[in-house]
Amino acid sequence: MNESLRSALKKLRLSGLLESLEVRLHEAAGNGLNHAEFLELILHDELAVRADRQLQRRIKAAQFRELKTLEDFDWSFNPSIKRKQIYELATCRFIREARDVLFLGPPGVGKSYLVQALGYQALKSGFVVLYRSIFDVVRDFLHDEALGGEDKVLALKQAKIPSLQGL
Fold this sequence. Notes:
This protein is mostly helical.
């Protein structure tokens, strides 16, 4: 690949295409792909890289303690957990229907793990997630109360929201 092409791809922010182009060029030559088939392949590569980056940014923004998945959950750990109900929640239908879900139980039964795993599923389904334990929520409320909500006002002013600029 020549430097001019590499530079153009960087300027266009097509890093996914840049990463896979050499392989795809060889694949196109070896399999006799026409121009449209080749273009489709490299564009799908770019879309896949962008989707992965977006998911990684959303995972970071969700503030999970650890990334947990349903596939890695040890169902034998707590046999009282109803696998069917958890997988039903993993479809995110409750989110689309604007229904709430609350996990209750003593410490160490798998609540935090499952909530984070369901949050990850929701992220993969395109929803925005913010993970907060009850301790985080209480700390946030106490912090807001101590500051009298000033931090939120400052954040809104910094965002330069047109309707709030006069504050």
